[in-house]
Write a structure and sequence with these properties.
This protein folds into two domains: about 120 residues, Outer Surface Protein A, domain 3; about 30 residues, no CATH class. Helices cover about 35% and strands about 20% of the residues. By secondary structure, the protein is α+β, with helices and mostly antiparallel strands.
């Protein structure tokens, strides 16, 4: 690992945002009440996120993960945390004396193979408000351009 990359891994800090989190099998399901967005993370991504309870560096997160993931590299953790920050799950900061590397710089340093093989999966879905969800018509109910069908098609003013 180059001295520059080591410095970047030491300088970056990630803090988990306040989200509702529940494990469902091997996936961590998160809900952001402010943006009404749900996120689903695979096991390793969920463990990375939970390791960021306090402002944590990628090196600290990698160390916390090594019990279950002994071959995890701090560089891969760093790139994964940047991806989670971009999805709005983490707040990313840097120590004042450090420059922030871009994702492109990290990928260049790690190599394209490592970037493609990042071990995390983040899936995000916008959840409609209860009022918006209730504003569509059920099957066999009247529908129109202002009240669309929840499922199926609107044919002759009825949901089919």
């Amino acid at each position: 690992m180059s001295a520059n990359l080591f410095t970047e891994l030491e300088c970056a800090r990630f803090l988990r945002k306040k989200l509702i989190a529940r494990w469902s099998g091997d996936e961590l399901v998160l809900y952001d009440q402010e943006s009404t967005t749900a996120h689903c993370l695979n096991r390793i991504a969920g463990e990375m996120l939970l390791a960021c309870e306090h402002e944590s560096s990628p090196i600290e997160v990698a160390a916390a993960l090594r019990e279950n993931w002994p071959e995890i590299e701090a560089e891969v953790v760093h790139a994964s945390l940047i991806q989670m920050a971009a999805a709005g799950l983490l707040e990313a900061t840097m120590k004042e004396e450090c420059d922030s590397p871009s994702r492109r710089e990290i990928i260049r340093k790690l190599g394209i193979t490592a970037a493609v093989a990042l071990p995390i999966v983040v899936t995000s879905v916008l959840i409609p408000s209860p009022a918006a969800a209730a504003s569509c018509a059920a099957l066999t109910q009247p529908c129109s351009s202002t009240r669309p069908c929840c499922q199926g098609l609107c044919v002759a003013g009825l949901c089919v």
